[in-house]
Amino acid sequence: MKIKNEKLEYMLNDSAVDSVAEKVQSFLAALNMEKKNILRIRLTVEEILLNWQEHYDGEVPFTFLTGKRLGAPFISIVLAGESVNPLERMEEECGEWSSRLLVNMGISPTYSYSKGKNIITFKPKKEKMNPMVSLLGAVALAVVLGLLAQMLPASVHEMLTEYFVTPIYDAFLGVLTTVGIPVVFLAIVSGICGVGDVASFGKIGKRMVGKFLQQEFVYAAIGTILAIPFFKLIITTKVNVGAQLASVVGMVMDMLPKNIISPFLEGNCMQLIVIAVALGLTLLVMGERTKLITKGIEQLTDIGMFLLDRLNDVVPVFCFFVVLQLIMSGTAMAVVSAWKVLVGTILLALLGVIFNLIYVGRKKEISPVVLGKKLLPPVLIALATASSSAAFGTNSVNCTKKLGIDNKIVSFGLPIGNTLCHPGHVFIFLLCSLNMAEYYQVECSVVWFVIAAGMCAIMPMVMAPVVGGTAAAYTLLFNQLGIPMTALPVALALSVVCDFFATGLNMAYLQINLLLRADEQDLLDYGVLSKTNG
Questions:
Q1: Is the pLDDT of residue 367 over 50?
Q2: How far apart are CA 121 and CA 504, in angstroms?
């Protein structure tokens, strides 16, 4: 269904509220949004209009707009008059960080006041074609044309590679680096600043964020130890304890930038992380005095995410040319050897979920099988769509109605968890790195493994949730680990395939995390949790 721009004028009364709610539902249905998220947005619109109706005396005019801006769907409600922000209650309940995450997911609105007008804006996410279809289609086409290219004369073969395929690859890689490096940096800074808002929830918020972060690094470390034996890596072993200590010290010293410019120019991700953390903590400590700077960084992060989303549309074209280059240069066996990544991601993620089910089952005296069935609804949606946003509505209902988690935990823990809880993607980054290190015979020392585990824990938290964001993250990761950039298209193809399993299993990890945090704070209804028919 084609989306058209529409502008309607109303007088604020009960009839107008019902009419606008119907229009919102129809518009979102055309975007193929999940029904629970459609209902959530519709109820939010109704609450906003009723709030304004209660505040203003008599019927006042307002404008309702829907359509597209720069290809992105939007819903806006504009009401002239004094400033009345109907979203303040939501921000007080969820925290500014959680509210901003919901906005970025397209589920919650933003409020602004300009030129005497109250403006409410939703930016719902339109259901796009499955990225796996377009990416694998590009790879398949590249394989066919690559095999046909083998029949061409050697001079034509070399000319195509040198003057056509390679320049396109280099150009796209340059764009990824240009956009990706600042986005990773800004995402870390804005994320740290946002934690200050979670702190207002006291012990609950601090512990929840800490547990999410701790979990990512623990799974990265365990995954590294379990996965190493299954890859034929060139491991450099040094029995000299002093040399090993010197390597570790050297790694730490290399993390400290010599100046603020070179890490951005060289794409040194570890140094960028150090600068970002230092800046984020400084802004966090200074609080209100740097509020404008913090807001500016958040807005720049949103701009970067938008650019990566647009870049996402041409990723299949990029992969087509690079896979074509792989075949024409005779290095396509990197794809064949990558089956370990898919199998390893599924096994490691499942192993972690099973361990957690057994642990929670014994702790709360509930069958792990029963608990696993209770977790299934959002897991299945995420498995089918590879989208945590698509499963958000179901996940929220599932946590409260089937697991008995208090809404105080769910309201801000769920959106934060969608950003910080990615064990499945930690395993994807880790196994892709080990697989490419095996194929390209990269020398791996103890320090290399430490850096790989640390960066693979961080990357899922800071990358944009689109293929373009994943490509930017791999560009930084491979550059840091000394893996050739020709590994990028293979890693992207693997990530798209594995993303379905990883996102689905992430939903299980997230629900278990929230359940444990609720239990710690005595905010868990054991009666609801123990129901076998829930």
A1: yes
A2: 30
**Residue 81 identity:** G
| 6 SS3 class | strand
CB 443 within 8 A of CB 236: yes
Q: Any residues with CB less than 8 A from the CB of 7 and at least 6 apart, and which?
A: 63, 64, 65
Pairing relationship of beta strands 443-444 and 234-235 according to DSSP bridges: parallel
The answer to whether 148 and 156 are in contact (CB under 8 A) is: no
Record: fold of 137-529: Proton glutamate symport protein (1.10.3860)
Q: Name the nearest CA neighbour of 103 among 23, 185, 44.
A: 44
Is-contact 305 185, C-beta < 8 A?
A: no
pLDDT tens digits along 3-52: 788 899 999 898 999 999 999 888 888 887 777 678 878 888 888 888 88
Q: What angle do CA 28, 31, 34 make, to 5 degrees?
A: 70
Q: Using CA atoms, how far apart are residues 400 and 505, in angstroms rounded to an integer?
A: 19
Report the sign of the C-alpha dihedral through residues 518, 521, 526, 530, in that order: positive
For the chain, give every domain's residue range.
Answer: 6-122, 137-529
H runs (alpha helix) in 57-116:
88-94, 96-104
Backbone dihedral angles phi then psi of residue 360, each to the nearest 5 degrees: -65, -40
Do the beta carbons of residue 439 and residue 433 sit within 8 Å? no
Which phi and psi angles does 358 have, rounded to 5°?
-65, -40
pLDDT at 94 > cutoff 70: no
- H helices of 330-422, in order, are 333-336, 339-364, 368-385, 392-401, 407-420
Closest CA to 75 of 117, 35, 36, 44: 44
User: Which residue is listed with tokens 């970002």?
Assistant: 276
Tokens of 326: 């792989």
Q: What are phi and psi of 34, to 5 degrees?
A: -65, 145
Q: Which CATH topology does 6-122 take?
A: Heat Shock Protein 90 (3.30.565)
